[in-house]
Amino acid sequence: MNEISPRRRGGARTVAEQASSRLQRRSFLKGAVAAGAAAYPLTRGTARAVGPTVDEASAESFPFYGIHQAGIDRPPPRLAQSTASFASFDVTVANRRELTDVFRTLTERARFLTSGGTPPKAAAPGGAPQDDRLLGGTVVPGGLTLTVAVGESLFDDRYGLAGRKPVQLETMQPFEHDNLNQAECHGDLLLQLCASHRDVLVHAFLDVMAHTDGALRPRWRADAFNNPPRPSGTPRDMLGFKDGIANPDTGNAQQMNQQVWVQPGGREPSWTMGGTYQAVRIVRFFVEEWNKVPVGRQERIIGRRKVSGAPMYGTDESQDPVYNNDPQGKITPLDSHIRLANPQTPETVATSKILRRSYQYDRTSDAAGDVNIGHVFCCFQQELNTYIAMQTRLEGEPLVTYISPTGGGYFFVLPGVRNSQDYYARGLLA
Ligand code: HEM
Asked: Cβ–Cβ contacts within 10 Å for residue 54, how many?
């Protein structure tokens, strides 16, 4: 439903239209490099002042270079940025050389947009502007992260990449209770954009669209936000529960290497090292029905207390749920969401750890006038099979009555861009 359509108003040419040939798309790459040169020097994750009128969130920047991409791990106690878009594309270019151009362009734009700086002037007097000035004369980093992932369809016969596919990457198949709208599923490439302010995100999205100039055809886009903590701790989802409590410690490299990042020495192609599998599921919540369910029953469906987020026997969200004194599920029901997701049994220990980073949505009501509220479930894991096993266990949970998965897909997040010579997917395309 959030499909993007080209806008044409009164003959005025958009920035994208002004750059409308493949040739110009390549020349834009040069512009991007120039823009990169004019950018602020990169800072390593610290907020810095761009000017006295710029708020702290606008000045915040995340390091662009690294073994891993940004937008996945955010060391606690910082919360994920407040706004996000999951934008899926089909790639339209004709061959591998042009595909390489696309990834180089994406790299240059992401480097500039996430660090901020002064966009270059029009190439010629009276020529097409190189920036829409949505953010004024200086592009603020605005806590922007741009995370690039690829879908199984990119590995078909178009670009000769079939032999390089991450071994577990597959096209999402419907689970038992799914109600998938194919127009909101899959894609060759997924851009996850997160930022502190919506204008920063929209500016980045439009910039990428303009500079890739038709090479990326929008397939679907899910816009979402992160609620502020109410009143503190982990933010709530639209069912009113604190969501995202039990997660790997993103500040703990050992845990992240075990559970999230692909490591050398396994069955995966070597180019995938430092990447991760991403599962995205657009899930509608039937909030009006949910809100008629007594809170005690809601808590038994989820397996935690609603207001505090504590385990069923606890008082605080920081307490870990444990089940060894509750084999029959008298305290935390065996079919509760958290107990099926992570049953804490020897048989499920290998398929119970994922990094969740979901965002909420509130869309226009549907044709029947029913509210359309839910979340964009997003998780990262070293093995896609972990997610699939977990979701399969959840097929029988009582929560399925109150939710309806409608879209999303499986993707592989590319390794990070390591330095100024590197670019997204270099290892894949080499
Ligand atoms: C679709 C709607 C969903 C809702 C409303 C939801 C909500 C919640 C809530 C409220 C919690 C408890 C607090 C926390 O630990 O974060 C939780 C935990 C969890 N959820 Fe979900 N979730 C959903 C989907 C999923 C899916 C699709 C998966 C994976 C396939 C998943 C995996 C988990 C895991 C692993 C935990 C932590 C379990 C533990 O170790 O205690 N959730 N979820």
From this structure: 18
Atom of ligand 1 nearest to the CA of 379: 29
Quote the tokens at residue 237: 């989802």
Percent of the chain with pLDDT over 90: 82
In the block, tokens 């997917």 appear at 425
Q: Tokens for 391?
A: 């979701």
Best mutation site among 243, 255, 332, 361 for ligand 1, i.e. most ligand atoms within 8 A of its Cβ?
A: 243
Burial label for 334, CB within 10 Å (0-12, 13-18, 19+), is middle
Cα dihedral sign, 252-255-260-266? positive
Instruction: Assess contact for 425 and 414: CB atoms under 8 A.
Output: yes
Low-confidence ranges of the chain (pLDDT < 50): 1-52
Domain ranges of the chain: 15-170+182-230
The dihedrals phi and psi of 194, each to the nearest 5 degrees, come to -130, 145
**HEC profile for 310-379?**
CECCCCCCCCCCCCCCCCCCCCCCCCCHHHHHCCCCHHHHHHCCCEECCEEEEECCCCCCCCEEEEEEEE
pTM of the full structure: 0.89
Q: How many CB atoms lie within 10 A of CB 225?
A: 17
Q: Residues 92-128, buried b or exposed e (16+ Cβ, 10 A)?
A: ebeeeebbbbbbbbbbbbbbbbbbbbebbeeeeeeeb
The tokens for 85 are 């878009």
Pocket of ligand 1 (CB under 6 A): 237, 239, 241-246, 281, 283, 302, 304, 321, 337-338, 341-342, 354, 377, 387, 390-391, 394, 403
Containing H/E element for 404?
Answer: strand 403-413
Give the residue, by CA position, lying nearest to ligand 1 atom 10.
Answer: 243
Task: Identify which of 332, 338, 357 to mutate to test ligand 1's pocket (most ligand atoms within 8 A of the CB).
Answer: 338
Q: What is the pLDDT of residues 139-193, one digit of tens each?
A: 999 999 999 999 999 999 999 999 999 999 999 999 999 999 999 999 999 999 9
Structure tokens at 39: 């950018």
Contact 113, 130 (CB under 8 A): no
* Cα-Cα-Cα-Cα dihedral sign, residues 156, 159, 164, 170: negative
pLDDT in tens, 71-123: 999 765 567 899 999 999 999 999 999 999 999 999 999 999 999 999 988 88
Is the Cβ–Cβ distance between 81 and 195 less than 8 Å?
yes
